[in-house]
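Example with several molecule types.
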Amino acid sequence: DAKTTQPPSMDCAEGRAANLPCNHSTISGNEYVYWYRQIHSQGPQYIIHGLKNNETNEMASLIITEDRKSSTLILPHATLRDTAVYYCIVSHSGNTPLVFGKGTRLSVIA
Amino acid sequence: GAVVSQHPSWVICKSGTSVKIECRSLDFQATTMFWYRQFPKQSLMLMATSNEGSKATYEQGVEKDKFLINHASLTLSTLTVTSAHPEDSSFYICSARGGRNQPQHFGDGTRLSIL
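Resulting C-alpha cells for the full complex:
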C-alpha cells in the first residue's frame, strides 16, 4: 500500500504557484520523498526528490518539514502543460520499486 | 538525463496471440527494471521486478506463466503477454533506475488492446 496521502484534486490559475501537499507520517529515516507526474497516456515523469533538506531544480521546489512527516511540491509558475496527476512516493534509494498511490489531479486553468 | 525507451507504443491484436514489449535503457545500464500495469482511471500497479541474469520477481496475483519477463542484458528487459485475452488490455509501463542514488525513470508505456 502507498504510504502517502494526497488530496484527490486541485485547481490552480495559470501563472500562479501550484502548491501540492503530501502527508507521509510513517516515513522511516532512510526513505526519500519522490515526486512524479503523469500526463494523460504517458509514462510518469520524474520531477524531484529529497531526503531531509529542501530541494530545487528547473522544474519545481520540494519543501520537507523538519519532522519529515509531510512535504509540499511547488511549481512556481504553473502553465496549462502542468495539468497532470502528481504522485508523492516515499521509498528507499537503490533498487526498491516505487509504489504509487492515487496522486493529486492538478488542473491548471487559464 | 536517463532515458527509458519502450516499444511498441501501442498494439492491437486478436485474442489468443502473444505480445512482446521491449524496455530499453538508452544511456545507462540497469541491473533491475520494473514492470507496471495501469487500467483506465487507476494508478500504476507494480507487476514484477526484472533482474538481469536471473528470474523475475512477481507481485502477488500476477501470473508468471502469463507474463513472461526476460532481462537478458543490462539495457533490455522484455515482457511477453502470452495467449492474451481482452482482460489483459491495459497500459504497460516499465522503469529503471539510472544508477545508485538516482531516481527511477519511466518509459512512455505500451497501450495493449486485445480484441
